[in-house]
Amino acid sequence: MPSLIRALRQLLLVAWLGLLLVAAAPAQAAFTLPPLPYPAEALEPQIDTRTMEIHHDRHHAGYVAQLNAALAQRDDLAGLSLEQLLARGRRLPEAVRNNAGGHWNHSQFWTAMAPAGDGGTPSEELLAAIKASFGSLEALQDRFSQVAAARFGSGWAWLILRPDGTLAVTSTANQDNPLMNQPGIERGTPLLGLDVWEHAYYLGYQNRRADYIAAWWSLVNWDQVNQRYAEALSPASAGPPALSPRTPDAGR
Ligand SMILES: [Fe+2]
Fold it and tell me: What is the pTM of this model?
């Protein structure tokens, strides 16, 4: 009988230790929706308030929620930053790739805009790089606008810093971006990205994407682009800016 009691005690001890281990395990980190850096109406009239609300509160929020849901099925990806996930590109499950891209792309999009007149101008260093790669700021804007208008279906136009130090204008489909190791994508550090999905402009511009692109130039936050360029050139830079670090979420 004493041996039965001993066995029961040991069983209870093991169960108790197990519960302690579960309770002490670090909570899975989850991605969160960053707030807009300005009121939703701040970009009027170039981008209307309702478009900003739906775009941020529903579309971007949806990418974040679906990314967290997709990652909940993949413990092997649990510790990776958003940028580390994107670098995996084609090796990612489609749901992770699409929603990680959607989260990163929109996070950079909000901060790359400012109310008209508030966004500053290209820095001396950035302007020199623009002139070296495109000839002039106007030539860059023309090239970028053409590429953005020509993107078939949904996607993004980008100004990127290539690994060789030159600048280039590129475009990606859907929610892909230049950080992805993906066939057909020119990789580089994104300095400025424009959303040309219809959800970004349809309420205000309907099918007139070219008008949306032309109006968007007055919203570009050059101070932010300057900062991204300086950080990308910094010897201490370990890669693209981490736009959305994971935060502990005890709910997962
Ligand atoms: Fe979007």
Answer: 0.84
